[in-house]
Every structure is written in C-alpha cells, then in structure tokens.
From TrEMBL:
Residues 4-152 form the FAD/NAD(P)-binding domain. This is Sulfide:quinone oxidoreductase. Gene3D superfamilies: FAD/NAD(P)-binding domain. PANTHER family: FAD-DEPENDENT PYRIDINE NUCLEOTIDE-DISULPHIDE OXIDOREDUCTASE, PTHR43755. GO terms for molecular function: oxidoreductase activity.
Amino acid sequence: MGKRIVVLGGGTAGTMVANRLARRLMDLIRSGELEILLITRSGRHVYQPGLLSVVFSEAFPEQIVREEKSLVHRDVTLVFDEIRRIRPDQSCVQSRTTEYPYDYLVIATGSRPDFDGVPGLKESARHFYNLEGALRLRDALASMKKGRILVVVEHPHKGPGAPVEFVLMLDDYLRRRGLREGIQLTYAFSDGRIHFLEPVADWALSQFERRGIAHQPFFRLEKVDPFKQRAFTSDGEEHPFDVLIAVPAHRGAPVVMQSGIGDDRGFIPTDRHTLKMEGDDRVYVIGDAANLPIPKGGSAYYQSEIVAQNLVSRLKGLPETSVYDGKGTFFLGSSLREAGFIAYDYGSFPKFAFGSEVLRWIKDMQGPAYWLKVRAIL
C-alpha cells in the first residue's frame, strides 16, 4: 500500500499545498505509491481579499468565488467532509462517519472571527469575513445617508491590513458619494496602537487625523445592546452607533479545539521554521491555524512552498532543508484609487510603501493572479 498525505482544509493554504505536492509528485501518485487527499467542508472557494471589493461594489460575488473542484489538480483526491477530530496518536482524522488514516498530515484549517465572545455582538454587528457578511455590509452602507459608524477591532485577526484598509476605503467611498460630512466615523481598537506594525500604525494615524476619522485606543468591548444600538466597554463607557462593524478576535477552527491540540485560542503550537506541529514530526501546520509570531494572513503562499518542498524531499529520501523565515506580504488600500504594500519576516524591520496608484493597480491584479497561485501555476 502506498503512502498518504492528508491535507485538512480547502482554503488558500490547503489548496495551494495540495496542488504544489501533486505537481511535483505526479510520478509517485500515478504509480500508486502515494495519495494526496484534500479534505474540506465546502465546495465553494472564496478569494477572501476580494470581499472588501464586494463591500464597496467594486466586484460582484461571482468574480471572487469558484468551485473548489475546479481549482484542484487532477491527481489530488478531493473529499467533502467535516472533520471532527484530529488524532495524531492514531495517525488519522475522523468525521462523524469516516476515519482517514495518514502517513503525513498538513493542517490548514484557518481561523474564524469569534462573534460569540461578546454578548450581543453577533446580533448587532456587520462584518466582511465571509461573502454573506460582505453582501449585508454592502447593502447597509449603500442605504446609509447619515449617522454614526463604529468600527471595533480586536486582536488577533486574519487579514493583517484589512481593518485599517476598510476604514480608509470607507472614508473615500463616503466622500465620493457626498455623504462623509453627515457621517461620524470612529475606529476603536483594543490595543494602544492602530496597527501591530509600527510603520503602518504611524502612517495610518496620520491618515486618520488628516481625514477626520475618530480613533480610540484600548477599546475593550464588554457587551452590545442590539435594540438600543449601544456598545459598552469594560471601563463603563457607552458608545451609540447606527452601524456597528466588528473585527472580533479570531480563534482556531473548532476541530482543533475539539482535538485538544491547540492553545487556549485554538491555534496549534508550531515550530516557526519547520512548520511542524510541536511534538509530532509527521504533522505540518500552515496558514492561520499555526500560532506563529507573525500576522494572520499574507504568508500562505510562502509557507506552502516550504512544506511542499520538505515533503517532496522526505518522500524521495532526502533531508528536509527548506526553512521558513517568517516571510509575509500584504497590500493595504488607502482609498479606492491608491494602495500601499508591506513585506515582513521574522528578522527584519517591515518594508513598506504607501499611497500609490500603481500599487493600487497591482493590488487589483492580485485577484486574477490568485486563481493561478492557488492552483500552483504561479
């Protein structure tokens, strides 16, 4: 019997690593010596950075959604199932009805916003973290003429530039529609700095002050009253709103919590260079599922390359020598016309450029390029 690599999760990281492996190991797969099994819950694959474009009517849903089966290499076995337990002690993952043994496991289960962590938040807040949420937020903003918009941001969250990017794009969106003067826009964040990267925080703060975007640090949301439309903080302050947009703290996937292999927030302890789960040489963790000291998002492309290269080496009897250096990149829209670009890794100070129409054009090209990247063609 041949060996089996199970890739758990059909988002960006999981699909990308499965496709990279299939393209490099076709000879082993077709000879029956290897199976690559990609397990995912949903048949729909969403280009998540495109959700903000949907919010501001710059893209239609069909432009950022494709069928997962259309993206997966023909030598990958694609299974739609909901995994409930990861069992490293038994070298398998389990759904309600089926057990999938593995020789090597790649966990790419991502992260999710925790709207249940604050009473009343789920009933009150809009968001842009899935297609349905982006569409509801689009419609809410399109119908708004005046009032108060409160954006509440907690850490950690995926999409390292998304909250700041959203607020700056929203400001531009309202100005273009001639509505900005009648709308109070407030960005409230749980930390003392607008963004975790200091250069981005300094730049964003200057933009907020220039554009009249109110900002409030150390905003610790305690509860929300969906009927009175009031947000309450831990220091007893009350904040009225007409539209509440939330970026709640993210947690790991439920399957990680249920399996007891994550930390208290459901992220898997992972070696920062090998991307292996701590304590298990046969389990790799990539994307937002890992507890690495880097932003959630912006690194799956680089991590999938490292894991694929090391698994190829391992299956061919060679040493695993590829090392992940913490590299990640993301674009940050500063308006509907301009964008910035940020690159970072474990060891160097973030490199950045802001306020460029050329970078905005390049950012817009990432959508079409994504479908080639996720198929491991680029």
